[in-house]
Design goal:
Length: 297
């Protein structure tokens, strides 16, 4: 009889032991995953940390061995000194002008084209959408020579126009993101707006765009990063230092003052700062725009 009553009494203890073991394994797996992720993040952040560290060192500490991650003393004078070596204000102005107009052009063009693909019904819409997506497989380098010949014929070489005007035509990737996001917005809103007398452009400007801040912010961040860090196109089209962007300015500074790494890293840190600030300010909208753009096909 004692043997018959022992099993029920031991069952809760065994269940508690199994539950504790399962919780321990889940905690161990979670800790391992976080350790791996932190290691990867550390490797990714190492160049950024080293750039910041070098920008605060004296010239004699840059080549010190063993290398010191925290400079002693911290030399903040590297930043104003680096800015006085070249016309950095002009470089920043040119890059800001190009980047701002690129963001404006891509948002306007991609939202209009994405609205047409997502909300309007017209003959050949799906075929043209597939053709547009297919252009993403075409390497950018293939079109460099024809574009250069075209812009040279127009007399745009050595001006900022080749870096600005093409961005007022919708890019395939950004149009795809915008179109996918627009398709998640209920079409009942369009019908209600039409009953109230709204035109097609009124639906686009008064209903669709105000509800599309996440995807538009995602496009803005993508375009800002690509335009601000663009080096190849300015190198091809800009021949005058007066029109140089910040990336060409950094390259020219490296060629003339390559041994002054502490000043070069200070200039590079200031160059990265706008991208970092924009991402942290808009990361909530950026993540929403990318996630919601893949919900509906």
């Amino acid at each position: 009889m004692a043997e018959l009553t022992a099993e029920p009494l031991d069952a809760p203890a065994r269940a508690g032991s199994i539950l504790s073991s399962w919780r321990f394994r889940r905690t161990a797996v979670a800790c391992l995953q976080h350790a791996i992720l932190l290691s990867v993040v550390g490797l990714i952040m190492l160049p950024l940390v080293w750039t910041l560290s070098t920008s605060l060192k004296e010239a004699s500490q840059v080549y010190g061995f063993p290398p010191a991650l925290i400079p002693k003393p911290i030399r903040l004078q590297n930043y104003p000194e680096a800015m006085t070596v070249g016309p950095w204000l002009r470089f920043f102005t040119n890059s800001s002008l190009v980047t701002g107009l690129n963001i404006l052009g891509q948002i306007v063009a991609c939202s209009l084209v994405g609205f047409s693909f997502a909300r309007l019904r017209w003959w050949g819409r799906d075929v043209l959408f597939i053709l547009m997506i297919a252009t993403m497989m075409l390497p950018h380098q293939v079109t460099l020579v024809p574009q250069f010949v075209l812009f040279r014929t127009l007399g745009w070489v050595s001006t900022l126009l080749p870096l600005i005007v093409p961005r007022f035509f919708a890019a395939a990737f950004y149009t795809f993101l915008v179109r996918q996001f627009f398709m998640t917005i209920p079409t009942d809103l369009d019908d209600a707006a039409r009953i109230d007398g709204a035109s097609t452009f009124g639906i686009y400007s008064r209903i669709i765009l105000p509800m599309s801040k996440p995807v538009l912010m995602a496009v803005a961040i993508f375009v800002f990063t690509a335009s601000w860090n663009e080096f190849q196109l300015p190198l091809i089209y800009l021949h005058s230092e007066q029109n140089f962007t910040i990336q060409l300015g950094l390259r020219g500074y490296q060629s003339l003052h390559g041994g002054q790494w502490h000043l070069l890293m200070a200039a590079s840190t200031l160059t990265m700062l706008p991208v970092i600030i924009l991402f942290f300010l808009g990361q909530r909208y950026f993540i929403q725009g990318v996630v919601f753009s893949g919900i509906k096909g």
